[in-house]
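Duplicate of earlier report; Dipeptide epimerase input re-posted below.
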Amino acid sequence: MSLTFKAFAESFPLAREFRISRGAKTQADVITVIVSDGQYYGWGESVPYARYNESIESVLAQLEDVKTRFATVNDTQDLLTLLPAGSARNALDAALWDLKAKLTGKSVASLANLRVTQRCNTAQTLSIDTPEGMQAQAEAIKNAPLIKIKLDEHLVLERLAAIHQASPQSRLIVDANEGWQVSMLKEWLPEMARLGVTLIEQPVPAQADAELAGLNSPVLLCADESCHTSSDIERLASYYQAVNIKLDKTGGLTEAIRTQQIAREHGMQIMIGCMVGSSLAMAPAYEICADVQFVDLDGPLLVAQDRQDGFCFDNGRMSQPEPFLWGLPGQYGQHGLAALWHKLPD
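Output:
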C-alpha cells in the first residue's frame, strides 16, 4: 500500500478573545492533513503552538520534508521514527487512524483496542479577564460540572472567589500556564482548596519543576507544558500527581496511548487536554477519555463555528453525534474529502 498526503492551513475565528497568561488570540490557526491510498481518504487536524517553537509555516515545512518517505509508511507506529513528537506528526497520525478505519471497516476504538467513550464531562474554559468579567463568564455556564480557569499572577484569589460565587457547585481547574513561582503557589493553596479548586495545571515554568519536590499540596498538581511523551513521565511523577496529555504534544494518538499507560503505572491521574481547534482536532483525543479523571476538550466551544458533524455539548456533557466526522468505518465524508483532495495542489 502506497500512501500520499496533502496538508494545508485553516483558520477558525473564535467566539470571543481567548486570553491566557502568555498572551491572547482571536482565531485558531490549524493544520489539516488528508491521507489517501488512492481510493479511500482519512483526515486529521493539529494546532501548531508557539510555546514549542512551532508555527503554521514550520509545521507545513516539516510535513513537506517527509512527503516522499511517507509513501513507505504502513502503520501509525511508523510515524514515531518519521517525525518527532509535535503537531506535524499529530496531524498525520490522526489522518492515518481515520484512513485505517475506512480501509478495515472498524472504528479507531476497535483498531486501538480502546474502551469506547460513550460520553464524558469536559471542562469549559474561562479566559483571563477582570474578576467581574470572569464571574460573568461563569454565570453563563452556571453549575457546569467542571470549569477550567485561565489565570496569570494577578488577582488570583479575587478571580477565583468571584467564579466560585457564580457557580458554587462546579469543580474548578486552574491553569497558570507556567505563570507562577512556588512561593505564590504556597501562599494561595489553602484558599484555592477552600474555593473548590481540585487541580492546578503547570503552576511554575517547566524548568522549575524540581522546586515542587516535597510540596504537600491540598490540590492536585498537574504537569502540562513539562510533559510531551511517555519518556517524561518517570521524572515528572516526583513532582506532580497528574499529567495533561495533549496529542499536539505527544505527536498523536499512537504515543498518547502509551503516555497514558505509563502515567497510570506511576500512579498519576490523567487529564486529556487540547489546544484551541475544531472537533476534528478533539476526535482522536476523545478516544482515550473513557477512564480518565479529567477531560478538557472544549476547543469546539471556543470557535465561532465548528466543523459539520462535530461533537455535541450539553452543559459540559460531550458526545459524538451520528454521523460523526472522524474515526468510524463507512463512507461518511469520503465524497467531500475526495473533492477537496482534487482541489488541492500536489
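The domain at 119-319 is CATH 3.20.20.120 (TIM Barrel).

Merging into the original ticket.
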